[in-house]
Amino acid sequence: VQLVESGGGLVQAGGSLKLSCAASGRTISAYTMGWFRQAPGKEREFVAAITWNGGRTYLSDSVKGRSTVSRDSAKNTVYLQMNSLKPEDTAVYYCAAGDRGTVLNRSAYYTNRQTYAYWGQGTQVTVSS
Length: 129
What we know:
Blueprint: E1 2-6, E2 9-12, E3 17-24, E4 31-38, E5 45-50, E6 57-59, E7 67-72, E8 77-82, E9 91-99, H1 107-111, E10 116-119, E11 123-128
Parallel strand pairs: 2-11
Antiparallel strand pairs: 1-3, 3-8, 4-5, 4-9, 5-6, 7-8, 9-10, 9-11
């Protein structure tokens, strides 16, 4: 599967952005889909994930209450809606696809970078204060 992110940009603190991840080569229903971000000088960190059927979503504490993750199987696209953006949200945001897992998998499975085998090139989000 190939993943292409879009929707990043420069926004003022308090603003909103909706990131998109368009998949090609295979249906996203075959995968758990995740969003990660990496700020300069920092490790890549988990932001959000959604199960293969959209039945469960996971959000990091840093974006919980301000963001939602969703998927549109007809468009083969995953979204990350981010509101009330803060300067500390500044990072390159990556979309990733991983094995579907099972209903027995706990949140640690979906938040783990090792779960995801396929990655996009990333989209830059910059939040000015």
